[in-house]
Amino acid sequence: MPASVFVAKNYDSLCDLVADRLAALVQAKPDAVLGLATGSTPLGVYDRLARRHHRAGLDFSRVTCFNLDEYYPMTPASPHSYHHFMQENLFRQINCPRWFVPDGRPRGEDEIAQACRSYEAHIAAAGGIDLQLLGIGRSGHIGFNEPGSLPDSRTRLVTLDPVTRQDAADSFDGLENVPRQAVSMGIGTILDAREIVIMASGAAKADIVRSAWTEDVSGRVPASWVRLHPNTRLCLDEGAARLLPNSRF
Ligand code: PGA
User: Fold this and answer.
1) In this predicted model, what pLDDT tens digit does every residue of 100-126 receive, in sequence order?
2) 137 CA distance to ligand 1 middle (Å)
3) Distance between Cα 154 and ligand 1 center (Å)
4) pTM of the predicted structure, to 2 decimals
């Protein structure tokens, strides 16, 4: 079955659409396992989930969350960490007691590899991911699976693409401060999820969205691998969809 594409009028409607899907899953399956993403794109989704928790009692007390990635080296307490990002933008505001982010603390290669295997085992022990939320980077990455990433890749230490480091430069006060590596779930980890929702917003993403959705499925554009998954939804706003042929507004 081809992946389906949804085009929302603007960023707010896009976030409504994605938040509705996540909330419906948590309501239908109170012990759902969610795979979550960082970046600016999902912020509006997290804001809506927090509001639903406060206003409508959406209950995350039995939910488990696994994030895609973390910079390396990075301590969880750093304001630049994805651990910190998730705490501030979602987990401080909802009642989810079990949430995990890959461990970016500096240590030896063997220890990192062991921690990556443990992360995979932890996801499996939780029953696997019900829904994986993804953004897409201008390099074509999902998580920090940069160009060249293969569909059987698992959680591992990766090298960041120059485009990814450039896009992070402002938030690190300069390119020289952006880490060169990260720990990321693999494409294989992502494809194991029972459902994938990939979201993109704005004209700056239009070209990579077009490549990921219309060119050959290959490691050249890692996001294209999700088209192999039988239950994938690409959720866009009009800006991100504008180079897709036949996109319906
Ligand atoms: P963004 O990042 O949401 O900040 O554009 C997306 C990504 O790199 O996956």
Assistant:
1) 999 999 999 999 999 999 999 999 999
2) 5
3) 20
4) 0.97
